[in-house]
Amino acid sequence: MIEGNSTKEIASLLHISPKTVEKHRSNICHKLEISDTPSLLRYAIKIGIADPELWLD
To answer: For the chain, what are the domain ranges?
Structure first.
């Protein structure tokens, strides 16, 4: 997700179904009380597990 992969691409990389990817993302958001994917990405950047430099050309 951080690298810009779609749910389908993530599922393929992990050899799981897209529904499983969505469920894991939903569970993470619920536990962190985060309502959407952009907010989840901002959180990942804030705690240092995502590098915003990855998106710069």
So the answer is: 7-55
Average pLDDT (34-43) is: 91
Question: In this predicted structure, what is the pLDDT of residue 47?
Answer: 92
| Least confident range of 17-21, 39-43, 48-52 | 48-52
**What gap in Å lies between CA 44 and CA 54, rounded to an integer?**
13
Residue with tokens 């897209």: 18
Tell me the DSSP string of 1-57: -TT---HHHHHHHHTS-HHHHHHHHHHHHHHHT--SHHHHHHHHHHTTSS-GGGG--
- Residue 21: count of CB within 10 angstroms of its CB: 21
